[in-house]
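Final report, results section. Input specification for complex C-07:
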Amino acid sequence: MKIIIGSDHGGFELKEIIREYILKKGLEVQDVGVFASESVDYPDYAKKVGEAVASGNVDFGILVCGTGIGMSIAANKIPGIRCALCNDVYTAKMARGHNDANVLAIGGRVVGKGVALMIIDTFLNSGFEGGRHNTRLAKIRDIEGE
Ligand code: RB5
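Structure output:
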C-alpha cells in the first residue's frame, strides 16, 4: 500500500509522527511536506496530495492541518477526491465503509498522537461496503460532472 502525506505548519508535528508510524508498519510513504514549522498555505499541500491520489499512483492520502477543515475543503475541490475529516475513530471507519474516502484529513491541534494513530489504523484497515453506497457515490460523481 502506498500512502502520500502532507501538512501545513498546524499539522507539521503530527504529520512527522504519522510518517514514522506508517513507515514502521512497512507501508510505502511519500511525504510532500511541509518540512519545517514556518507558516505556509494549506491548499498548496492539499493540491499535491489530492492530485497524486486522483492520478491513481497512490492508494490513499493523509492531510494534517490545525483542524483538518481547510485541508478537507481544498482536497475535495479535486475531481475524484473524497476527503473525509476524521478527528475520531468512528468517523474514520464510516469514511471508508460508507463514503469510500480516499483522503483522510486530521486536525493536528484537535487530536493527540494516540487517537490520531488509532484513526490512521482504522482508516487504512477498513474497507468500502459497496451496495447502496455505490449509488450515492455515483451521484457525487454526477455533481462533479455538472
Ligand atoms: C493555520 O493557522 C490553520 O488555519 C490551518 O492549519 C487549518 O486549521 C485550517 O483549516
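The mean pLDDT is 98. Helices lie at 12-24, 42-55, 69-75, 89-97, 113-125, 132-145. This concludes the modelling results for the funded period.
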